[in-house]
Amino acid sequence: MxxxxxxxxxxxxxxxxxxxxxPAADALKDWxxxxxxxxxxxxxxxxxxxxxALRRRSSAxxxxxxxxxxxxxxxxxxLERGMSVDAIARLADGVRHAPPPPDHAEADALAAAAxxxxxxxxxxxxxxxWLDPCFAAVFGEERADEGAALSRRAPVDLxxxxxxxxxxxxxxxxxxxxxxxxxxxxxxxxxxxxxxxxSPPLLAEPAYMDGLIExxxxxSQLAALLSAVRPGETVxxxxxxxxxxxxxxxxxxxxxxxxxxxxxxxxRLAPIHARIARAGVRNVEVRTPRGDAELLDxxxxxxxLVLIDAPCTxxxxxxxxxxxxxxxxxxxxxxxxxxxxxxxxxxxxLARPGGRIAYVTCSLLDEExxxxxxxxxxxxxxxxxxxxxxxxxxxxxxRVQFLAAVKVSAEGLLMTPRRTGTDGFFVSVMRRR
Length: 433
What we know:
The chain is of the alpha/beta class.
C-alpha cells in the first residue's frame, strides 16, 4: 500500500471506532480481515496512525476546527509527528487511493505551529472534558502537561527475571533491539519506539520464550518493589490477573516463602499458569474462584503482605491504550470505586498484626487513590499509612531522587509519565498495628 492509501485506511478505521464505540484493536483486526492484501507492514503503519489520532483526538480536533476522522488524522500528523503542511499535502494528494488534498480551510488550520496558549486544559492535555475537575484536583495548573505526557507513545519496558538471568545478560541478549537500562527499576530494560516504529516481536525472542524477561512497565515493577516484600514471607496477591506483579514478587522473594494468587474473575487468571511455568516460579499457588465460595479463609490474619493491584479506570495506562480514555465514563469510575473498596475490606482480615497491605492502581485520579485509602483507614483504624519516605526506602540509593520526582501525598506516592517516565501508578502501603 502507498503511504496515502494507508492514511485513507486509518481514516476508515477511526470512523468505525467512533461510529460503533468499539476498541481500536477490534476495529483494526476487522479491517485487516476485510483487506487481506494489506501486509504486516501496512497493518502496523495503519495502526500507528490510528493510535496517534486517538492520542491527540482532542487537540487535533481543536487545531483543525472539526472533529471528523479526516480532520483528526490530519491534525495528529501535524501535532504528533510534526509533519509540515506540504508533507501532509504530498501524503494526501488524492492519487492511488490517497485522501483528497487539504482544502484551504484545512491548510490554514495545519499552518498553525501549535495549539494556542488559551486552549482549554483538557484540549492541551488530550483527555475527556468531564475528567478536567479530577485532573485539576490532583495536578492543578500542571494538569495539561500531565495529560500531554499521557498522550505520547510509551516505550516497551521489560523486567529481567532474576530467577533465571541477571540484568547484564538480558541486556546483551536484546542489544539488537536497542534495549537500554530503565532509570529506576534495578531489573528493568527499555526499548524506545519512534512514532511510526513497529513494535518488536518480543514474544518470539529466545530471551522471552526462555523466561529471562517479562513485558512489564517500569512503574509496575516499582510497585512490586515498593511493597518491601521479603524472602520467606506469606503473601496474598488478591487481584492477580495475568500475574505480572505475582511473578515480580516471586523473583523478589527468590522463590522462597509463599504467594497465594487469586482474582475475582477467572478469565483474568487464565494466562498466569503458563507464565509461572515459563518463569521458573515455584512458590506461587493459584486459587481459582468458584462461585461465591471464599477461598482465603485459611489465611485470615496470616499474611505478611496483601497486594491489591486494584481494578481501576486505567487512566495511568493511556499511553498504551489511547482509545480507552475516550470510552471511559463516569459510571465506570463509580463501579471501579465499589470494587476497590470491596478488595480493600477483603484484605483487612488477611493481614496479620504488623502485616502490610500494598494498594496499587494504574490511575491518576484521587477518587481511586488517596480517597480510597482515607475511606479504608476510616473504616479500619487498626491500619495506618506507611510514610512515603519509608516506602521509597526499598529503592536504596535511588530513594531521594525518586521521592523528588514522584507526587507524594499523605496516602502514598504517584508516578506519572511526565514525572518518572513510567505509566501512571499510585502506591500506598498500610500496616496493621
